[in-house]
Amino acid sequence: MRVGLAGAGRIGAAHAETLGGLVDEVVVADADAGRAREVAAKLGAEAADGVDGLFSAGLDAVVVATPTSTHAELVIRAVEAGLPVFVEKPLAADLDGTIRTLAALRGSDVPVQVGFQRRFDPGHVAARDAVASGRLGWVHTVRSLTLDRVPPPDEYIPTSGGLFRDCSVHDFDAVRFVTGRDVTEVAATGANHGPGAFAASGDVDTGSALLTLDDGAVAVVSASRYNAAGYDVRLEVLGSRAGVVAGLDDRTPLSPAGDGYRPAGPPHAGFLERFAEAYAAELRAFVGMVAGGTASPCPPEESLEALYVAEACGISRRERRTVAIEEVRR
Questions:
Q1: Is residue 161 part of a domain?
Q2: Distance between CA atoms of 61 and 85, rounded to whole angstroms?
Q3: pLDDT band at residue 113 under the 50/70/90 scheme
Q4: Which end of the chain is more exposed for a tag (fewer CB within 10 A), N or C?
């Protein structure tokens, strides 16, 4: 199998290494030709002369790990060329762009997989299995959090889409994936305690959202850009008979207030380390999908549903009110 990789930055380079162990040939392209050659050389892979060269390289599939603003265009181009495509979230930069992209893809049988890697994290998968098996009883509460060790660069913040769309959207997708339920309404809030870059962009560095699910269960999603103790992603599912947690291990940067257990290992530095196994698993699933002609494990419509929740949370925070998902659905 010959797979093209568009984007050789941090996540692209990680994907390139994984793909090098999964497929026969990898072809790398990047807006920075030197960076593409450097990543390709480490793998003994081929570097294409830009994106046009990539799409002329006789590919069987494409992985898109370029900046967000280019995702929609490259996904549509790949599908029109008949190439199965994996794209890092988000599918497009905003809600309107996502809906336009889905309209452009409608009617095509070329599979598209969106990179929500938590769907492949062993802990999240086990939590989903526990819910589906019924051993937790009926689920009444879900708690999901994402805490960044350090904030993103200041120049990224104005184009990030905001805390809920950029960061918590992973939690929103994880809640839907683990419970198998849809979100019906949200109530969100946020604050700024760090330097002023977030506030200057109309964003917050810390936020929480209360989600009501379609079966009456509630989910609490929390996020912060400032958690110097270490990168921390956890999800709890609490049922009438039992509860489970994903992401709680000896590297979780959390300790009891008094004497007791202390983490045994160093905390995760960031998402690439915390989700290394999940990132590899999602690409294995993509390659398997291409080889076997199976359905996408995370189709773009799922990305839209998580984005609806993020959009509703953004409105709720700004207007200080509860927002129904139907209010933002189009």
A1: yes
A2: 6
A3: very high
A4: C
Treating both helix axes as pointing N-terminal to C-terminal, what angle do 122-133 and 276-292 enclose, rounded to 10 degrees? 70
Query: Of all helices (H) and strands (E), which one includes residue 36?
Result: helix 33-43
Question: Mean pLDDT over residues 5-24, rounded?
Answer: 97
The span from the CA of 110 to the CA of 80, in Å, is 8
Which pLDDT value is given to residue 255? 81
What percent of the chain lies above the pLDDT cut of 70?
99
pLDDT tens string 129-169:
999 999 999 999 999 999 999 999 999 999 999 999 999 99
Q: How far apart are CA 267 and CA 227, in angstroms?
A: 11
- Output the pTM of the full model: 0.96
State the pairing for strand pair 183-191/206-213: antiparallel
Task: Report helix angle 276-292 to 10-20, nearest 10.
Answer: 60
Task: Give the integer Cα–Cα distance in Å for 246 and 126.
Answer: 8
* Same domain membership, residue 213 and residue 76: no
Q: Rounded to whole angstroms, how far apart are CA atoms 93 and 75? A: 13
Out of 92, 110, 128, pick the residue that ends a domain. 110
Q: Pick the last residue of a domain from 110, 142, 158.
A: 110
Angle at CA of residue 40, ends 39 and 44, nearest 5°: 130
- Is the sign of the CA dihedral 201, 308, 62, 21 positive or negative? positive
Return the sign of the alpha-carbon dihedral for residues 324, 325, 328, 330: negative
Give CA–CA dist 204/317, Å, rounded: 10
One-letter amino acid of 64: V
Predicted local distance difference test score (pLDDT) of residue 257: 83
